[in-house]
Amino acid sequence: MTLKTHALASLDEVRAFLNGNAPVEFIVPVGAARYRWLEDTLRQFRYDALKRADKGLLQVFLRKVTGYSRAQLTRLIGQWQHRRSIADRRGPPQQPFPRRYTEADVRQLVAIDRWHGQLSGPATKKLAERAFQVFGDAAFQNLAGISVAHLYNLRASAGYQRQRGHHEPTRPRSVAIGERRRPQPHGAPGYLRVDSVHQGDWDGIKGLYVINLVDAVTQFEVVVSVERISESFLIPALQQALDAFPFVIRGFHSDNGSEYINHQLAAMLEKLRIEFTKSRARRTNDNALVESKNASVVRKHLGYSHIPSHHAQAVNAFLRDQLTPYLNYHRPCFFAEVALDAKGRQRRRYRYEDMNTPYERLKAIPDAAAALKPGLSFADLDTLAHAMTDNQAAEQLNRERGKLFQLIKNKKVA
C-alpha cells in the first residue's frame, strides 16, 4: 500500500482530515502493505499511551483509510499490542470434509427402502447390519455403521429423492365451497373426516389414490381407492364409501385440496343433506384424526411403494371386502377421555379400559339404534361382527393382501 499524506503527524491533523479540512492523497491499500502501514501508524501515534477518546478518534481514522470493519480492526490492533506486528494468521483454504456416505450407499438405501417398504430408521439400520454382518454383502458395509439420525438425513437428500418415487402433494385452492370450521359432532356418529393418500408416480406411470373416511366419534372407517383424483373417479367412490357406513352421515370434513373443494362434490353432499366443512389455516388438529389413520392403517397395510393406477379396481375390492370389515369389527382403538384441568384446559387421556372396536363403540352410544340407516339393525351387524374371530379376520386379511400384491408384482414383471 502507498499512502501519501501531507504530514499527518498529530491527532489534531487526523481530526481535520476526518472533518474534510486537511488535504490528503492516498491510494486504496491492498495486500500485506496495508498491515505495514497500520503498524507504522499505531507506532507513530503511540497508540498504547493514548487516552480512550483519542484511541477512538484514531480508530475512526484507521477504519476510514483501510476499509476494515470495527471488529476486524479491533482484532488487528489487539494483535499489534501483543506482538508489535500484524500478520495474516489465516491458514490455507480448508478442504471440504470427506464424504463418508457416497452415492453408492444412497443407492443401497433406496434399494432397502424399496424392498422393505421404507421401514423406520432403526429397522432399516438393522437390515443394513444384517446384510453386511450376517449375509456378508460388502455393499452394505458403510450403511451398517450409520446412525439412525443420519439415515434420515440421507433419505432427505436430493440424491435419494431423485431415485425414489414422486408423491404429489395435495393442491390447495381458494374456493368459496364448504364452511371453514371444525365440525362439532357432540357425541353423535356420522361426522366424517376425509383425506386422500397417493401411492406415488414412477417412471411416468401414475399411482392410484386411496380415500380414507373416518367417523370422528366411533372411528368407524371406510377405505376406497380410485385411479385418478378427478371428479369422474372420486364421486362414485365417495358414494360407495358413504353407503358402506351403517349410520346416517351428517357431516363431511376435508382439507382444502381441489379433489374435495369442487362444485360436483358439493352438489352431491347438498343432495344428501350432508354438512360440508373444510380445515382452517394453521389449525393442524382439524383433520388430525384421519391423517393419523393414514399412517397407522393405509400405509401399514398398503405401504409406501408405488402401486400403478390400473390396479385401483383390485385394490378397491380388497379394501372393501377385507380391510374395512377388519378395521371396524376386529381392530381395537383408543378413545380419548376429555377432562378439564385446574386451569380450565382440556386434557385427553387414553385409558386401556376405554379401548374397543369402532363397532362396539357405536353400540355404546346412547340411543345408537336411532342413528342407524333405515332397514338396518344391530342384530344384522352383530351377525357380521361375529362371523369370525379377530385372529381369523387378521389371517384372512393378510392372506388376501398377499394375493393382491402378488397380482400387482406379476403384472409389473409382465
Structure description:
It is elongated and about 105 Å long. It has a six-stranded mixed sheet with strand order 3-8-7-4-5-6, with helices on both faces. It has 16 helices and ten strands. Helices cover 46% and strands 11% of the residues. It has helices at residues 11-18, 33-44, 52-66, 70-83, 103-116, 121-134, 141-144, 148-156, 158-163, 231-244, 263-271, 288-302, 312-329, 358-364, 378-385, 390-413, and strands at residues 3-5, 24-26, 179-180, 191-198, 209-215, 221-226, 251-254, 275-278, 336-340, 346-350. Helix 1 packs across helix 3 and helix 13 runs antiparallel to helix 16. The N and C termini lie far apart (76 Å). The protein is an alpha/beta fold and 414 residues long. The longest helix is centred in the C-terminal third of the chain and has 24 residues, at 390-413. The chain folds into three domains: 3-83, no CATH class; 103-163; 179-413, 2-Layer Sandwich (Nucleotidyltransferase, domain 5).
CATH architecture of the largest domain: 2-Layer Sandwich
Main β sheet profile: 6 strands, mixed
Instruction: Give the assembly state of these chains.
Output: single chain
Overall tally of structural domains: 3
Number of strands: 10
CATH superfamily of the largest domain: Ribonuclease H-like superfamily/Ribonuclease H
CATH class of the largest domain: Alpha Beta
Which series of helices and strands comes N to C? Answer: EHEHHHHHHHHEEEEHEHEHHEEHHH
